[in-house]
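Following up on my earlier thread - several people asked me to post the actual chain instead of describing it. Fair enough. Here it is, all 221 residues.
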Amino acid sequence: MFPTPVEEIIGYTFKNRVLLEQAITHTSFFNERKQTRKSDNEKLEYLGDAILNCIISIILFNKYKDRHEGFLSNARSCLVRRDTLTEIAKKLELGKHLNYGNGDNGVPEESKVLSNMFEALIGAIYLDGGFNKTRGVINRLFKSYFTDERLSEKSPKNTLQEYTQKKWGMLPKYKFVRRVKDGFTVNVYLGNGYKAKGHGKTKKEAEQKAARAMLDLLNVR
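Reply from S.P.:
Thanks for posting it. Predicted structure:
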């Protein structure tokens, strides 16, 4: 059985290619064709997100035994955030192989579609090949990202906290607003009246998005 283009890209051949097909199929694919919704990649994305966080945590723990918890937490955030996953997906040109319903326009460049596809593939690999195979794939795909420069990038929350402490002597406060179908909404407040909102798949991601929005509001880069 010859590998498909996606299998060649990720360096893994599926025993059950139904899982692969599910991982690369967005729900819009069925909506555009007015077909009954079959198996798309949303549930695999959910699983892949959890597996990716777990394996990245283990890799960092073993690779940086002399680093403190703060470094490891920030490093994991840098690696599993949407921007990084989208960047990897673009480098691998995974979007060319996504079943996506958008007419002739293709996959939107700046969207969560590619990062979701990446997570779905991780979930599919885990179900098909198990933990160790998935860890091997993640090690290969993230190899160039395990550098001190990359892992030391400050998250928006850290940047905002340092800025507000230095400028006004205050800390930002985050408040969970509501949960919606595709994630969470969080507000961030400053004691001087500034307020910004963020939305993400998890509360942590929503907080980072809110912090980024606040930094944009304050014109901090």
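The two ends are 50 Å apart (CA to CA). That should answer part of your original question.
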